[in-house]
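Continuing the series of single-chain predictions for the mutant panel. This is the parent chain; the variants come on the following pages.
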Amino acid sequence: MAYVITDTCIKDFLCVEVCPTDCIHPKAEEPGFDAATQLYVDPEGCIDCGACVPVCTSDSVKAGDELEGNEKHFLESNAAYYIH
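Parent structure:
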């Protein structure tokens, strides 16, 4: 199961820098960055490597299958960001 980013994200881009598949967006130069309240993991691009977890200073990156009940909606919100 893919990793997801929760709403405690501070958009510091540390996860973006280590992601080997470039599946975390939006980046600062992308449209909608200013309006985005957090970064999002594309579930289709995530290879479950976990590289993003230890670098996240806000503990916002979590494995989808380890989300608590009140966090499960982040699976949908991360996936929904990529539906255009």
